Structures are given as C-alpha cells and as structure tokens.
Amino acid sequence: MGWLDSNLLSAVLFFPFLWGLIGLLIPQGSEAGRGVLRWFALLGSLVTFALSILIYYRFQAAGPEFQLTETVDWIPGLGIAYRVGVDGLSLWLILLTTFLTPLAILSSFTAIKEKARGYYFLLLALETGMLGAFVALDIFLFYVFWEVMLIPMYFLIGIWGGKDRIYAAMKFFLYTMVGSLLMLVAIFFLAYQYKVQFGTFSMAIVDLYRLKLGGDGWLSVQAVLFLAFSLAFAIKVPLFPLHTWLPDAHVQAPTAGSVILAGVLLKMGGYGFFRYAFPLFPQAVIQYQLVFMILGAIAITYGALVAFVQSDIKKLVAYSSVSHMGYVIVGLFSLNALGVGGGLYQMLNHGISTGGLFLLVGMIYERRHTRELKDFGGIAKVMPWFAIALVIMTLSSIALPGTNGFIGEFMILLGTWKRSPLLAALCALGVVLGAVYMLWLLQKLMFGPLENSENRKLTDLTGRELMVMAPLVVAVFVMGIFPGIFF
User: Fold this and answer.
1) Which helix (H) or strand (E) holds 84?
2) Is the entire prediction scored with pTM above 0.85?
3) What number is the average pLDDT over the span 72-95?
4) SS3 state at 452
C-alpha cells in the first residue's frame, strides 16, 4: 500500500489501459472466451471505480489547492512534466467517468459478439484517456490525453457502429482534430511567453496562470489565444453552430460509445473552459462573455426544436444533448457563483440522465432492431420496468424538482438572470420546450394502444439490465435531494 499511497492518481489513471492490454491475450474465438472477456473487462472497470472512491476519501475539501499531486520530469528543456492532481471539480468528473464505464461495459454483454477483445480494450483505453485529461496539471500533458481520447472513440464508432459509421467516425475525428491543432499552437505560444517573462520554459498550469498577456481589444493577444482554446472546447461541448458532428456520432455509435460520448466526452469542453480558458485569459472571457451566452441560449432552443421533429429516438436524445449542454455554457459564462456552480453541476447531471436515456434506447433497439418512433407505442403494457426507468430518466432530463436536473438548471437560470434577464427568459423557454419533446417521446413510445404485433412479444428488462439502470436511478434522486454532498 505504500506505493499506492503516493501514486494513487497514477494507479487510477493507468490501471484500465494496462488491464485492457492483458485482456488482449484472452482468446475470443468461442462464446466461452467472449464471456471471460466481458467479465474481465467489467472487473477491471470496477477496480478502477473502487480506486477512484479512495481518491474521494483522501480528498480534503479545505481549499483551492490541487491535492494528491505527482510530478515526474518528462521533457525538461521545454518545461514539460508528468504532473497530475485533483481539485473539487476534477474529483467529481473522475468519479463520473469511473461510475459510467462499468455500466457501459455491462450494457455491452449481449450487444457485442464480434471482435469483443478489441472492443473492451478500446473502452478501457478510452477511460484512461478521459481520466488523464481530468487529472493533468501540465497543459501539454492535457493536450496529449485530449488527443488520445480521439483514437478509441474513432474505432468504437468506425468498427461497431451503424451503417454510416465510417462517415460519422471521420466527421467526429476531423472536427475535433481541427480545433485541437489551433489549441496546440496556442499552448506553445503560452510556453514561449512564459520563457520571455520568467526566463524558463514551463507548461505547469499553476505557472501559466501567472502570465500577463495583452487583453485590450477583441483581437488582442489574449483574445486570439482565448479563441484558439475556445474553438477546441466549443467543438467538444458541442456549441452551436459547431454541433453537427454529434448527432451523426451518437446515431452510429454502439450504445456504450453513446453513453461515454454523452456522459463524459462532452464534459471535456466545459471542463476545458473552466480549467484553462477562464483563468488563462480572464479579460478575453469578459469581452466574449455575451457572445458565448447568446450561442449557448441559441443551442438550448435550437437543440430542443430540432429534437422535437426527430423520428429516430436516438437522434432525438442526441439533439437533447445539444440543448442541455447549452445550459452548461450559459451557466459558466454568467461568471457568477450561482451560474458557474449550476453549470458545473449540470455537467454531472447530463452525464447521468442522458447516459441513462442512451442505455434505454440501446436496450429497446436490441429487442426490436429499430429506433423509429412510429414502430412503437403502448409498450409500457409489456415492459413495466423499462417504463419506470424511462419515466425517471425523462423527468431528470426535463428538470423535475426532486431530480438532479432541477438543481443545475435552476441555479443556471438564477445566475443568468443576474447577467441578462432577457437571456434567462430565453433559457427558461428552453426548459418548456425540453419538457414538450421529452414528454412527447414518452407518450409516443410507452403509452397509447399496443397496435404493433412485434411489440407484444417484447420482454421486460433482464436482471443484468436492471443492474445497469439501478445505479443511475439512485444517482438521479441522490443528486436531486442531497446536492450539498457535491457542492
């Protein structure tokens, strides 16, 4: 335990990847071999979750300093080092990642029958990439993990996705890569500026926070750097009008890919704004505050309106993500405690509610091999447990009081009102529209007459599927009733 005490973050970070490498040695030619692979991958993700719980218990909520830090020189000449640590924000995003990954793996047990070895390895490697971005305290190390995440998700969509999977995977990759390259240029410019001002290279976040950059004007040095970072983060959110890759990626991705994409990967955008863009470029943030709040408000209403006209259930949930992540941007750019706190909480909420919705869509797709709303109706009569889970996740998504979604959206609206009552009213309209399309989905899918003969043969949730949904249902109410735990 001595090594673990001083290297807990590294253990949590690299264990999934190393465990996945071992899994590549397991034969997958028979059903028995695939069964061993499933349980092996699940065990690895559960061990990672247990280790992340240790981080929670070691963390002391006493101040803003990073904790459990580790530093090892990597490229000293450029001031690049392996620096990791956690604070109150990254702590909960680590827990969200390690909480959702076992559920994503467990949901894949019956869905993935081909190339299972590579599939579970990529899921575990993706977990390492996501955790690395959340714990990195060196901006170059953050960039490395930011790019590493692309590779497993690209292959998960491209190999195990739907009929247009190659198009969706390429679109996802190209969008993210374009934004990332501009951010890389900005990162090296920051390192050079640090050398000019302090006489040595450093990529440490706490060092770069000390930089003084020109911030007067819409195209000042600080503003240009802010926009370079913001493009990468806005694509990942995704913020209107940079969102078009997301519906394609969600619709084509396997269920576990959609859960991780919505539950964790989209949070990288909000996390990036809060960790890097805001403290590095404070004057530029104030200059562009209203621009991003307006774009966030447009995303809320646009995503809701487009979701309402979708016939594919998965695409509807994908556009709901565009709408809900718009709240995150509006909250963060309100630049007051209520709005920012609500935006950060909404990141966690969205991971739970939308992750749960994608899991339920995957479960119904496995049974009917269609996601068209017209093919359903009245299935609550034959799938009561599925109906209960879907109702709870829907109420969470539309922010019913008592569920997790209410806390985040209420705080965001209050914070936005302080900055702009007009924008707050527009965002409140998005709340109404969200209730309209989600309740419409619920009514069309679950209630009414059971007319389609195929639906009469549907079986309710299995024990395994109930095990997947139960933790999410519990999280909805714990986060909705006891938010103080998280704040």
Assistant:
1) strand 80-86
2) yes
3) 87
4) coil
